Amino acid sequence: MKTDAGDTRPGTIGPGVEQAAPNLHSFSGAGLRPRRHIAPAIRRLLGPILVLALWWAAAIAGHGRRLPAPDAVLATGTDLVRSGQLPDAIAASLQRVATGVALGVSAGLVLALLSGLFRIAEDLIDAPVHILRALPALALVPLAILWFGIGELPKVLLIAWATCFPVYLNTFAGIRSVDRSYDELARSLQLGRWTVVRRIVVPGSLPGFLVGLRYSLTLGWLVLVVSEQINASSGLGQLMTEARQFFRTDVMFVCLDSYGLLGWLSDRFVRTLERHLLAWRREYQNR
């Protein structure tokens, strides 16, 4: 096909000469070599498989007493599941984390909305929150025992304390990062304040809130490990305490693996929420 001398369409070199446009999605890197695609599910498994291989190699290298092999841990975990000890411990730990995270996330979300929407609330809330978040949750264990005893309440409150601040920080940042052009659009449409909050501010701050929720769930499991050492009569922490007394490293590794798996499942739960709640954002459409 002939073209004019001034034709600058893609795929043309000069008058009367055409060149096939390269398929940029089929090549990458120097030399335009074909890209080899690996299924996402396989890519996600490579990291855990590598960790498992290193663990097995270390156990074979002669540290079997202090570092049990993965097959020994699997056998112990199977026995604990059959006896009902592991399911009961996981259920008790899940209940503590769910209650603590619910309290902490709710408090952080309310404080962030107040500080983000009202200047006077920011002046009253923001500085104290930043002061309090500098206090390590684990350093508050002695005070929690002194004030609330050794029952379930201090365990739940420690988890709530740790999980409040990530939600506050990320949600507050999300509210303040909403594009100003939306505010001008709302004024031109004469939208009410609460309509703006519901239709613009809340959707705009939702990504920040979900990031804070992911951090909070991780912190919740970390604090649970320590809080369950406070005279717990059930839960993974109590199971680990008994295993430590009898030098059962295999049981301890079962509990640690359970903590890690539960934390990973919590993170995947939030990622699933992101895909559904933020489907309108381009960067979340193919996740």
Automatic annotation (TrEMBL):
Under the heading PANTHER family, the entry gives:
ALIPHATIC SULFONATES TRANSPORT PERMEASE PROTEIN SSUC-RELATED, ALKANE SULFONATE ABC TRANSPORTER-RELATED, MEMBRANE SUBUNIT
> Which stretch is the leader sequence?
none
Against Gene3D superfamilies, the record matches this protein to: MetI-like
Q: Which family does it belong to?
A: Belongs to the binding-protein-dependent transport system permease family.
Where is this chain's protein located in or outside the cell?
Cell membrane
Q: How does it sit in the membrane?
A: Multi-pass membrane protein
What Pfam families does this protein's entry cite? BPD_transp_1 (PF00528)
Protein name according to UniProt: Sulfonate transport system permease protein
Q: Which residues cross the membrane?
A: 45-64, 97-118, 130-150, 156-175
**InterPro entries, alphabetically?**
MetI-like, MetI-like_sf
Locate the ABC transmembrane type-1 domain: which residues? 90-274
**Which keywords appear in this protein's UniProt record, sorted alphabetically?**
Cell membrane, Membrane, Transmembrane, Transmembrane helix, Transport
Q: Which CDD domains match?
A: TM_PBP2
Q: Does the keyword Cell membrane apply?
A: yes
Q: Does the keyword Transmembrane helix apply?
A: yes
Q: What is its main location?
A: membrane
